[in-house]
Inverse folding.
């Protein structure tokens, strides 16, 4: 049986109360001060991950810093906290450790962490990319549309996920626009896509203008701030928000009934998986980055599968194949912590049709 661990952390201060209910009654400053001084926490044991081809057990290990703290505190300090969590995974007997949320963003995307431990490390980003594309295709089918007829925008295109996502979409012949605020990094990323696929994507740093023309938006920016607001999107737009914290404002769901926002990278785990911890999903569901770590453990492939800023399109396809082998599947659609039904999607399509006809 394979063994793994996955490092989690509170995205916002409100998340702390899931493990420590008393935190909701304490001043924010005191909670932050405490988080900065806590050691890694073995949060739960993960059991029941199995398929006809393999099985795995593991642990959630908390690195108790919020996303804001990880981005604002000194990088060396934050990396040291992540390394301590990874060393805890090693002591528990994990063969591979996955870096969740901002633990995979800070520093050099896991490379320094890997040099500090004697077990494999992965960010889980390869399977995150694969499931985001699959989710978009499936959602568009239910909207009676096709990716080939869509203008596709990749928001945060210079990051590790954004670059390989753009490459895969371009390789399939889709019309894509790469968007980022840093023009130098954007030009470099676009040249890489051209070299690898033969197709030249459009690029822009004008985020708001790009959003209003897009049919499909992949949000993969690591920004702490909300980027996509209600007035930014065209009627009928599909938004796949992979980012944590979210790039999309909750106000989009409230005021834009003609737009579909889904969370990318949510999958159902095979077997009778029990995480023994509530991180906001129904039983048996998890993020794709978590699933990648489980898949590799089930295969007993203790290797650094997704690491650093340059992901491989080949590895995205490989982890997708292994996921199918073990029975990991898309878990329908979710939007802002709630499931999205076919009826919900039909209502979005109708709202978009009415709004479009009224112009």
């Amino acid at each position: 049986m394979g063994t793994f661990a996955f490092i989690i952390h509170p995205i916002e201060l409100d998340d702390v109360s899931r493990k420590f209910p008393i935190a909701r009654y304490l001043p924010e400053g005191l909670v932050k001060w405490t988080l900065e001084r806590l050691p890694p926490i073995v949060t739960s044991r993960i059991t029941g991950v199995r398929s006809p081809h393999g099985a795995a057990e593991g642990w959630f290990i908390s690195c108790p810093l919020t996303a804001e703290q990880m981005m604002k505190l000194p990088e060396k300090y934050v990396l040291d906290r992540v390394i301590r969590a990874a060393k805890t995974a090693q002591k528990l007997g994990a063969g591979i450790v996955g870096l969740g949320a901002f633990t995979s963003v800070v520093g050099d995307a896991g490379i320094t962490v890997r040099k500090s431990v004697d077990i494999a490390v992965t960010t889980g980003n390869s399977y995150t990319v694969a499931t985001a594309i699959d989710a978009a295709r499936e959602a568009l089918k239910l909207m009676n549309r096709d990716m080939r007829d869509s203008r596709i925008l990749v928001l945060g295109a210079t990051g590790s996920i954004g670059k390989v996502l753009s490459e895969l979409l371009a390789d399939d012949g889709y019309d894509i626009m790469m968007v980022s605020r840093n023009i130098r990094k954007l030009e470099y990323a676009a040249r890489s896509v051209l070299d690898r696929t033969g197709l030249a994507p459009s690029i822009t740093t004008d985020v708001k203008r790009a959003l209003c023309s897009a049919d499909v938006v992949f949000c993969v920016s690591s920004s702490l701030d909300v980027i996509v607001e209600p007035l930014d999107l065209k009627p009928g737009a599909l938004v796949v928000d992979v980012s944590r914290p979210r790039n999309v404002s909750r106000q989009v769901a409230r005021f834009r009934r003609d737009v579909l926002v889904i969370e990318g990278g949510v999958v159902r785990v095979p077997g009778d998986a029990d995480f023994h911890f509530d991180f906001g999903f129904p039983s048996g569901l998890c993020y794709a980055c978590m699933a990648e770590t489980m898949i590799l453990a089930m295969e007993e492939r203790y290797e650094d599968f997704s690491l650093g800023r340059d992901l491989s399109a080949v590895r995205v396809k490989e982890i997708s194949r292994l996921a199918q082998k073990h029975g990991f599947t898309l878990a329908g659609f979710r939007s802002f912590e709630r499931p999205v039904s076919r009826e919900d999607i039909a209502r979005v399509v109708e709202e978009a049709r009415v709004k479009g006809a009224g112009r």
